[in-house]
Amino acid sequence: MRHSVLLIDDDTEMSVMLTELFKRESVDLSVAEDGVTGLDKALNGDYELILLDVMLPGIDGMQLLQRLRQQHRDTAVLMLTARGDDDDRVMGLELGADDYLPKPFNPRELVARVRALLRRTPNTTMQNESLNVCGIVLDPATTEVKCDDAELILTPTEFDILRCLMQQAGQMVSKDQLSVAALGRKMEPFDRSLDVHISNIRKKFPTKPDRIQTIRGRGYRLIASL
Length: 226
Prior knowledge:
Elements: E1 3-8, H1 12-23, E2 27-32, H2 35-44, E3 49-53, H3 61-70, E4 76-82, H4 86-94, E5 99-103, H5 107-120, E6 131-133, E7 136-139, E8 144-147, E9 150-152, H6 156-167, E10 173-174, H7 175-183, H8 193-204, E11 212-215, E12 219-222
Parallel strand pairs: 1-2, 1-3, 3-4, 4-5
Antiparallel strand pairs: 6-7, 7-8, 8-9, 10-12, 11-12
């Protein structure tokens, strides 16, 4: 099975190298070298994953991501950020990125991260029956989610995190469990990505954001009933 991925990055040399590398991974890589072209491709193309650089000519990666999510496009997004720039990482996650990878990176590390996200999107490792827990109804077949009868627009990562919590409602789910289920990888030291995703989900609940409880230093728990 071949996969379709969009790379939005103005580094031509890297784009050529990654195009050749991904061919061996059964990935067809489309490339856009500026933000305007990248946004057009992201909105009008059919991609399973977008690799998005922060620093772009035209419109930057943050603006592009924001516009993409405003259009309710839920394609998974892996942000490529400057190493050590925590503000960019957190901002990208808050705007709806699924994961991030600091530059410069080992190309094999990028391939591993892409494989993990493609395996998880759609997630085939979890049960496919609909779930109805704590006022939330989640249908894996259609990826539709309602909370208190209001539709929730979730990113693929937010969807997988919520599904994992719903399947184990009333129980504490460790951060590593959630990270593997939603991102295809274990947590890294000082990794705040999961905390930001949980915060985003809570903000999207129309009422009672505390239905997802924090177990400090260990994980999270979705209460079984209101």
